[in-house]
Amino acid sequence: MLVKNQDISLTCERLGAEMEGICRYEGQAVFVAGALPGESFAAKVVQVRPQYAFAKLMKLTAPSMDRRDPFCPAYVQCGGCSCQHMSYAATLSAKRSQVYDCLTRIGGLALSETDVPAIIGADKPTHCRNKTSLPVGGTATHPLLGFFKRRSHDIVDISDCPVSMGTLAPVIAAVKGWMLEAGVEPYNEENHHGLLRHVIVRTVRGGDVLILLVATSASLPEVPKLVQRLQNTVPGFVALHVSENQMNNNVILGKTCKKLYGVDAIFETILGLNFEISPLSFFQVNPAQTERLYQHAIDFAALTSGDTVVDAYAGAGTISLCMAKKCKRVIGLEIVPQAVESARQNASRNGIGNVEFITASVEEKLPELVEQGLRPDVVVLDPPRKGVEPQVIEAILKAAPRRVVYVSCHVPTQARDVALLIAGGYRFVGCQPVDLFCYASGVENVLVLERTLELQ
Question: Cα separations (Å) of 78 from 121, 147, 179, 450?
Fold first, then answer.
């Protein structure tokens, strides 16, 4: 039985969902952050649970050929990335294995290795993320902006981030300077005191930068001075907004926001269409990879000119509008009012009139529409990490669309939901993982199911 602080020798067998090394010691699973498959090393046990343990890598005795020096000085502590210590090719291989493991182990699919194709990697895996959320901590006289340490809410103070699109350095410097000058108190998660909770930076490939402050009050001190700092130092700065969030939990955004300066939204082009990105709306984090992901979703849908499509969890309408060019009608369902408004504006801006966006939760509205007689030919699912609710699965099975295209950023819940749909009469046709979260553990997977003949 392992005990805390015990020194042991380990060999890494494979990587887990968070890119941690999975090892075995006398039959017990041991998780070691930073270990790579095939590596042997000395380790120290830091935590022991009944079925597994955690250990810290102390000294490598046989390093992997895939090991690399991290390119970010904050990587060792920062929880924003999880695989800068390996080659980019190795991260892609590990993510593909994650998809295969989830679909076969959780989803129960009888797949061969070749049924999960090689993940589509980014041409440029650095400076590719268009949204960066920085928690704020410290004190009014010593503010901290950065990312949480792994498995904690302690903030790692950073000056820049090499995976964020553009550069964060002048934004961080400007906000810190304003906090010091205006005496802005950072929010404290323990006592729930303080004003500024998060700084969110959204950037598009055209260069425009929108900054959203999340605070416990929409009334901020000396806003003109912050705007002036941002104008003077941040290339492309076009907007500053604030979202009020007084909830005592880990939810980042408030339900509303107010413009403090500049434009209402910024714009990105995806597959030839121009999309509005408002402060609170969801938009995929990697635009170049998003185009590849959505193109596969469109191809998997195999649309005809007479088809009706339901786009569940439609966000700002990106998938809806990209598919509208290929079918008769699209109905987009989205619970966030600001996102629906962006979706409608996006439809108008792109001259697309065969799309209807409804502000409602998918778990309430889709069953209602199906009960009223809606029978879509294709249903597209792009839910949050928790996956889809049971009533959504039930509604899809009742509507019996020809195909279900499922886009997911969390393959374990995707696999769970796919198993339910297959049990209800669908079959797996194919999937395609795409790397949107470069050097982080996440992977996006688009998967298509087809209705079996027995349901026709």
Answer: 23, 6, 23, 42
Phi, psi (degrees; rounded to nearest 5) at 74? -90, 0
Question: What's the CA gap between 263 and 240, in Å, rounded?
Answer: 8
DSSP, collapsed to helix, strand or coil, labels residue 74 as coil
Q: What is the mean pLDDT of residues 334-340?
A: 90
Per residue in 166-202, pLDDT tens?
Answer: 879 999 999 999 999 999 999 998 899 999 999 999 9
Assigned domain for 289 exists? yes
Q: What angle do CA 253, 256, 258 make, to 5 degrees?
A: 110
Q: Are residues 312 and 420 in the same domain?
A: yes
- Is 409 one of the catalytic residues? yes
Q: Which of 327, 409, 431, 438 is catalytic?
A: 409
Total structural domains in the chain? Answer: 3
For the stretch 258-303, pLDDT in tens is 999 999 999 999 999 999 988 988 888 999 999 999 999 999 999 9
- Expressed as residue numbers, the domain containing 365 is 283-455
The counts of H helices and E strands in the chain are 9, 21
Give the span between the Cα atoms of 403 and 300, in whole angstroms: 8
Q: Give the integer Cα–Cα distance in Å for 96 and 112.
A: 13
Q: Order the strands of the 143-148 sheet from edge to edge.
A: 155-157, 143-148, 131-138, 196-203, 209-215, 237-244, 257-262
| 178, amino acid identity | W
Tokens linked to 442: 């996440």
